[in-house]
Amino acid sequence: MSHTQLPVIQDSPHDLCVARVPLFQGLSHQELLDVAQLARPRQLTKGEQVYAAGAGTSQLLVVHTGAVKVARPEPSGHEHLIRVLGPGDFVGESAFLSGRAPNHYAIAAEPSSLCTFQHADLAQLVRSHPSIGLRMLQDVSGRLQDTESRLVSLISGDVTSRLADYLLSLRGTATGEGLEVALPLAKKDIASLLDTTPESLSRQLRHLKESGVVTPRGPRGLLIRDTDALMELASGS
Length: 237
Hints:
4-stranded antiparallel sheet, Jelly Rolls, alpha+beta, single chain, DNA binding, HTH_CRP, 41% helix, RmlC-like_jellyroll, DNA-binding transcription factor activity
C-alpha cells in the first residue's frame, strides 16, 4: 500500500508520524500540530506484543518506523498472519468504531516506534475534523476489499497463483535484467499470509528459480526476470 507523505512539520517531535499518515491528509499546518500534541510515543523491541486478542485496547496505533504484524491465534497454537503494518499504517480503528475487543493481536516484527492516540482524543478529532472519520472508513473499506480478494484467491487459486500474485504486489526497482524486489517478511510469515506452509512456499520459490522466472538476490532479495510469466501464474493460466 502506498502512502502520500505530507510536508514535514518541524515544530513537533511526532511530526513525521502525523505527517505521513493518510488519515490526517487535508488538515492544515496548525491542525496537524494540534493532532501531534495528542500523540503519545511508544517504542517497541522486536517480538514485543503491542496488544493481545480480546484486550480492552482503547488506542489508535500508528506505525512511525519499523513493522508490526497483526495476526489471529488459531486453536492449534499457531498464528494466522492477517497483515503487516509499515510506516504510516494504523490499527485500532475497528475497536474505536465498533467498541468491540479485537479478535487478533499485534506484535513488533522488528524494532519499531509508534504514535498512539487515546480513543477519547480520536473521538474529539473526528468531531472537529469529519474528514478523519471518512478516511478511516475508506481504509476499513479498502481492507475489506483486500480480504474479499484474498478469500477468492484461496477458494479458486492454488499456492502458485497466490505466490505469483504476492510477488507482483511488491514494490520493486526496474533494472536492465528485470524487477528487483525484497521480501518484507520471513518466509514463515509469507507462508502464513498466503495460507500455506513454509515448506510449500520454499518449493514454489525453488520452482520459479529453476524455471528462470526469478533469481535470488541475497537473503530476502529477488530479481523477477519474467513478469509476464508471473502474471500468467497469478491468473491461473
